[in-house]
Design goal:
This protein is mostly beta strands. The chain has helices at 3-6, 8-13; strands at 32-49, 52-70, 75-85, 91-93, 95-109, 112-125, 142-154, 158-170, 174-187, 192-202, 218-231, 234-247, 249-250, 253-264. Strands 1-2-3-5-6-7-8-9-10-11-12-14 form a 12-stranded antiparallel beta barrel.
Length: 265
């Protein structure tokens, strides 16, 4: 396998845990542990309260630790730990996650291969951060996430991924949501680049009365990632994303960078 693609589980997952869920279309393999530490900054000047846009400025910075360990070639455990800060009051460990990831099928073709993967997991608050402020870092909600995806990787480095599933957020009321994610990219010996588009739709969402009000969000987001290897098993990753439209969401721009590492037993 191309060495760049060998690191893709952490490249594609580590920076998207807060939205898409930290699940890629690649398996690390038996006895392999992938680790990523990333930093991101996300800002917006317009927030959509229900269907109405208003001026509202906010910048959130975060550090994110991602770990995926392969128990077998078809089964892995994914863990994600984010730390967010907005100001002195609104900061702390936010909502971490644990996910089981299973490759249902692997089909080899003369031109590449296809992976079909299912993952199930929970995200949950890691600290008692305040949630009743004007700009909380989260809602301290329990989230159940299920993801189903197919990914085709060609023998010359091009790949396509389609992922969907369902989220159930447990607050005062149950908020189900349906995410849809499409990725495409190319990996060569000296770099990897990808672009993606994501739709997220909370069913029967209400209308927020304050930023991060928790009435259920919808959004359309685009983004991209660039990875450059440094030495064997270690590389640097850079990315960006932009929310184009939505409901109960800030129309934000995000920039991120990080380091990724693969340990093989």
């Amino acid at each position: 396998m191309n060495k760049v693609f060998a690191l893709l589980p952490i490249l594609l997952a580590s920076f998207f845990a807060r939205a898409q869920g930290p699940i890629s279309g690649f398996m690390p393999g038996r006895g392999v542990t992938d680790i990523a530490l990333g930093y991101s900054t996300e800002s917006f000047s317009r927030y959509v309260f229900g269907d109405e846009q208003r001026d509202a400025r906010l910048t959130t910075e975060s550090m994110n630790l991602f770990v995926e360990h392969g128990f077998t070639d078809t089964l892995s455990l994914v863990a994600n730990i984010p730390y967010l800060w907005i100001d002195e009051e609104n900061r702390g460990l936010q909502d971490g996650g644990l996910f089981i990831k299973y490759r249902n099928q692997h089909k080899q073709y003369s031109t590449g291969y296809l992976n079909l993967i299912t993952s199930l997991g929970l995200s949950f608050p890691l600290s008692g951060y305040p949630r009743d402020t004007d700009t909380p870092i989260g809602l301290r909600a329990l989230n159940f996430q299920a993801r189903f995806q197919g990914q085709y990787v060609s023998s010359f480095g091009l790949f396509f991924q389609l992922q969907s599933g369902v989220d159930f957020q447990f607050l005062e009321e149950l908020l189900p949501a349906v995410p849809i994610l499409f990725r495409t990219g190319f990996g060569a010996r000296r770099y990897f680049a990808e672009a993606w588009i994501e739709s997220y739709n909370t069913i029967n969402s209400g209308a927020d009365t304050q930023v991060s009000g928790g009435s259920g969000s919808q959004w359309l987001r685009i983004g991209g990632t660039l990875y450059v290897p440094v030495i064997a098993g270690i590389g640097l990753v850079f990315g960006g994303a932009r929310i184009l439209s939505g409901r109960n969401i800030g129309l934000s721009t995000r920039w991120n960078a990080g380091v990724v590492y693969r340990w093989e037993r």
